[in-house]
Structures are given as C-alpha cells and as structure tokens.
Amino acid sequence: xxxxxxxxxxxxxxxxxxxxxxxxxxxxxxxxxxxxxxxxxxxxxxxxxxxxxxxxxxxxxx
Length: 62
Fold this sequence. Notes:
By secondary structure, the protein is mainly α. The chain has three helices and no strands.
C-alpha cells in the first residue's frame, strides 16, 4: 500500500488495485488511515534517528 502511495496513486486507485489483484475489499478511508498513520510513524523515526555524520544524499556525477 505504501509503495503504491509513494508512486502517486490515489486512495481510490489503491483500493481498486487491492480489489483487482488480491480480491480484498478495502475502502478509500481505510487506505487513507493506514497510509497516514504509517507515514507519520516513518517521519517520526526518520527525524529521531542518530546523526552518524554520513551524507545520505546520493552523489550524482556532474
């Protein structure tokens, strides 16, 4: 569900995808609740991580 959301699918599109692929009836509101809750948790973990001094930005050749 999170990867579909990260790809830019709407809650309705995710709900339809789950029904088509897995036969699971998941409402748009349930998808919204799950993605919002999980995203908030991931942000909290990311913000509280220990700074190791390692640059996490990718190095792109010029």
